[in-house]
Design brief:
135 residues, mainly alpha, 6 helices, globular
Length: 135
C-alpha cells in the first residue's frame, strides 16, 4: 500500500467514525439526552433553548449521514463539520464559565478538559475530509 493509499484509508476510517459519532450525538439531542443538551445552551442565545437543541441535533445527523454516505463530498462536508464544531464552541465556554453541570462535566477541571478537546474535533473533521495536507 502506498503512502497516499494508506493516508486515504485512514481518512476514510476517520470519516466513517466521525459520521457515526455525529449521527449518534444528533439522535441523542432529539431523544434521551435532550435535557442535558438544553443545559448547555448559553443564556444569551436569542432562541428557545429546546429549538436550539433540536436544530443542532438535526444538523449533526445531517452532517454525520453526509460524511458517511457522500464520500465524493468529503472535503465540503469535512469543512462544514469543522465549522459546526467551531460554532458550538461558545456553548462549551458558557458551560465552563457558568459552571453548568451536564454529561458528567460537574467540575471546572472536567469542563476545561472538554474545552481543550474541542480543537481535536475540528482537526478530526478536517482530517476526515482530506483538508489537512499530506506530508
Amino acid at each position: 500500500m502506498t503512502r497516499t493509499t494508506a493516508t486515504r484509508t485512514r481518512q476514510d476510517v476517520a470519516r466513517l467514525a466521525l459520521g457515526a459519532m455525529l449521527v449518534f450525538a444528533g439522535t441523542s439531542h432529539l431523544t434521551f439526552a435532550r435535557r442535558e443538551f438544553r443545559a448547555q445552551v448559553p443564556p444569551w442565545v436569542p432562541m428557545d433553548t429546546d429549538d436550539v437543541v433540536l436544530l443542532s441535533g438535526a444538523a449533526e445527523i445531517a452532517l454525520g449521514a453526509a460524511l458517511a454516505g457522500l464520500p465524493r463530498e468529503r472535503r465540503r462536508i469535512g469543512g462544514l463539520a469543522a465549522a459546526f464544531f467551531t460554532a458550538i464552541f461558545p456553548g462549551n465556554v458558557s458551560q465552563y464559565r457558568n459552571r453548568v453541570d451536564g454529561f458528567g462535566l460537574d467540575t471546572d477541571t472536567k469542563r476545561a478538559a472538554r474545552l481543550a478537546g474541542q480543537p481535536l474535533l475540528v482537526a478530526w473533521a478536517l482530517y476526515a475530509g482530506g483538508l489537512i495536507p499530506r506530508r
